[in-house]
Amino acid sequence: MNQGSSTFDQYFTPESLICRLIEEVPLKKVKRIADFAVGKGALLLEAKKIWPEAELLGIDRDPKMVCSLKTNPTSGTWICENFLEWAPKQDGAAKAAYQSDLILLNPPFSLKAHPCLSIPFQGAVYRCSIALAFISYALRFLRKGGAILAILPHGVVHSKRDAALWSAIGKTFDLDILEDHVAERFHGCQVRCITVKIFNRRPKIHAKTAKPLEVVPDASAALQLSRGCFDHVSYKNADCRGRRGHLLIHTTNLKDGKIVGRFARLSAALPYKEYEGSLIVFPRVGRPSKEKVVFIADAKGLQFTSCVMVVACGEMSTAQAVFSAISEAWNSFRNCYGGTGAQYTTLEKVKDFIRSLPEAEGVEESSLKRSCSLAGG
Ligand SMILES: C[S@@+](CC[C@H](N)C(=O)[O-])C[C@H]1O[C@@H](n2cnc3c(N)ncnc32)[C@H](O)[C@@H]1O
Asked: Where does the Methyltransferase small domain start and stop, copy by copy (predicted)?
């Protein structure tokens, strides 16, 4: 382990993970991309290939990292600062100069000097890990409609230490766990990681794609797309006999249009994502199959593994409309899945599918058109 890695938590992101993270960026136009723990700039330089016109902003507290970026032919604003103490003027032009549409982050995970920090967020003070402190500070520089894509330690969403701040952030921003168990190992480091996507607000529906769906002001009618939050492998052997705690649904529990089989029971103390009303669920990975698309009238007491895709519909009639639309437009739905090895789909592909439904499949008269607004992250 070199001095940088131990002093500054310099565990650089492997290329395969960078590409996967950038693939999940939901934005078309990106004017500024920031990384507040920029290191050698790998995340920003990769993103620049996709958005060549975007300005880059990178901060690192290690002067060596910043010096090497300043000699890089790719232009950008490179600042040597401790991000958690960085206080640029937050008024007028200065504020605008740092606001970013896209923030990519692989922050330090565990600086020994700061195992737990106290961080102000929206008028309250929270104890949290350094990684979540980075997210919380980074949100100040995220434009409306922008997104943060980050690699974080597993504990940010699964530990008591970060639970209060993570849940407070979730009340204002849309949180989406992309991978609950990142497969890559970081050089010299075996920390378990997740990847997350955070929206500053629900993204505006692009006028062109939004046209077929009527946007209604009632938020309860909105469809929300997400993946389950729990890692299948970790909970595979969880106790199935208890009576308390949520039931964990995995893809193997989706059969013949029903929820079947044995379920793990999750401890009541875990930080759950709350689902309300009716859902449509189907596997995120695996060969697409109609019998694995399941309508759930009441989501109470259910949780899902990260291999399951969840469309939270609110009203039962909306869920029924989505369910029949998937079945009627099965060939298009099947095209949401791809991949060279195991087939899989993404939130973006499913979202595009739902947006395209009325026009592509001629279901203008369905209750989908009358009652759904698509607002999910
Ligand atoms: C895990 S590395 C990630 C580097 C790069 N973004 C990547 O993905 O490969 C974290 C980086 O954050 C920097 N760092 C650590 N503490 C910091 C702080 N308080 N403020 C700014 N940068 C910091 C380290 O020097 C290191 O380069």
From this structure: 21-151
